[in-house]
Write a structure and sequence with these properties.
The chain is built from 10 helices and 15 strands. It has about 325 residues and is an alpha/beta fold. This is Alcohol dehydrogenase.
C-alpha cells in the first residue's frame, strides 16, 4: 500500500455515511491511467450519486467524485499519456481519493500555467457550458444570454464563454455578492431570481427585446419564468434541475415565440468528435485568457463532507475544489 493513500467511501446512502479509508492504489489496465490526485472538484451529481438519486448508481461501497487533476503515476498499454504528465479529466466515480483510475480518452493535458485546482474545474462544468453554448446552439456576437445560477460552476463557466463570444450576458443569482461575481466575470447586468416577475427586468435590460438564449441548470420555476423572458426564436438550454423540480414546459409558449427547448447532454461513449471540438475551444480560450475558473478552494481530503454540505445548501460560489496534495 502506498504510504498515505486514502479515499472516501460511500457504503450506505447519505452524506453522513461517508467514511475515509486507506487503500492500495489500483494499477491501470489497457487504455487507463492511474492519476495521483492533486485536486478534485465537486458537482451536484456527486450528492445525487451518494443519495442513490442519480442515473448512474455505482455498486456500494464506492468512492464518489468525478473530476480530478493531477500527475500520471502509471499508464496502461495503448495510452497517449505517460508517467509524469499533468492531466485533468472526468472519471465515472472514484475521484475523492489520493489516487484514481482515469480512461486515457478522458484525460486532458494541462498546460503548466493552469493550476491543478483550476484544471479540476474544467472537465464537467466547462465542457457542459461549451456543449450548451457552442454545440447545442451557436451563440453569436450581439445576442443576449441569460444564465441561471450564474455564480455556480456551470453558471460562471457559461458567463465567461458567452462573453468571450461577444454575447451580452444577464446573470441570475440569489445574492448581491453572487451577482457581483458574475458581473466581474463578464455579465453586463444581473437579476435576482427570487424577485417576482423577474422576466420583466430582463426586458428592461434588453430595451424590450428579451433574451435570445437561456442557460438553465436550475429547473422548476426558473424554467417557467425563463419562457416569458425569451425573445422570438429564442433557445432554452436545459442543463439540469438543481432546484430538485423537473418543470413541465408549456409547449404553447414555445409555439407562440417560435422558440426551442434544447436538452444539453454529452458523454464520452457517443460524442467523441463533438468533445474533441469542445476541448480545442476550451484550450484556445484558456491560452488566450478568455476563460479562467473561479475556485472555491477547500484544503485537504478531510474537508469533503463539509464541502459537499455547503454545495447542497448553496453556500458556495464558483467551482468547489478540494486541494488534496501539493504537487
Amino acid at each position: 500500500m502506498t504510504a498515505g493513500a486514502r479515499k472516501w467511501v460511500s457504503g450506505q446512502q447519505g452524506l453522513g455515511n461517508l467514511a475515509i479509508e486507506g487503500f492500495a492504489p489500483p494499477e491501470p489496465g489497457p487504455g487507463e491511467l492511474c492519476v495521483a490526485v492533486a485536486a478534485a472538484a465537486l458537482n451536484f451529481s456527486d450528492l445525487l450519486m451518494i443519495d442513490d438519486k442519480y442515473q448512474v448508481k455505482p455498486p456500494r461501497p464506492f468512492t464518489p467524485g468525478q473530476e480530478v487533476a493531477g500527475i500520471v503515476r502509471a499508464a496502461g498499454a495503448g495510452t497517449r499519456h505517460k508517467p509524469g504528465d499533468r492531466v485533468t479529466g472526468k472519471v465515472d466515480w472514484g475521484g475523492f481519493a489520493t489516487h484514481a483510475i482515469m480512461r486515457d480518452t478522458m484525460a486532458i493535458p494541462m498546460p503548466s500555467n493552469v493550476s491543478f485546482a483550476e484544471g479540476a474545474a474544467l472537465p464537467v462544468v466547462y465542457t457542459t457550458a461549451y456543449v450548451a453554448l457552442t454545440e447545442s446552439t451557436d451563440t453569436r456576437a450581439g445576442e443576449t444570454v441569460l444564465v441561471h445560477a450564474a455564480a455556480g460552476g456551470v453558471g460562471l463557466a457559461a458567463v465567461q464563454i458567452a462573453a468571450a463570444r461577444g454575447a451580452r450576458v444577464i446573470a441570475a443569482a440569489g445574492s448581491e455578492a453572487k451577482r457581483a461575481l458574475a458581473v466581474a466575470n463578464g455579465a453586463f447586468g444581473a437579476i435576482d431570481p427570487g424577485e417576482p416577475g423577474w422576466s420583466k427586468t430582463c426586458k428592461v435590460l434588453t430595451e424590450g427585446r428579451s433574451v435570445d438564449v437561456v442557460v438553465d441548470p436550475v429547473g422548476g420555476d426558473a424554467t417557467l419564468e425563463s419562457l416569458r423572458a425569451l425573445a422570438e426564436g429564442g433557445r432554452l438550454l436545459i442543463v439540469g434541475f438543481a432546484s430538485g423540480t423537473i418543470p413541465q414546459i408549456p409547449a404553447n409558449r414555445l409555439l407562440l415565440k417560435r422558440a426551442s427547448a434544447i436538452g444539453v447532454y454529452w458523454n464520452h461513449e457517443t460524442d467523441a468528435e463533438m468533445l474533441a471540438r469542445v476541448t480545442q475551444r476550451m484550450s484556445d480560450d484558456l491560452a488566450s485568457g478568455a476563460i479562467r475558473p473561479v475556485i472555491d478552494r477547500r484544503e485537504g481530503l478531510e474537508s469533503l463532507p463539509q464541502a459537499l454540505a455547503d454545495l447542497g445548501a448553496r453556500r458556495t460560489s464558483g467551482k468547489v475544489v478540494i486541494n488534496i496534495e501539493d504537487m
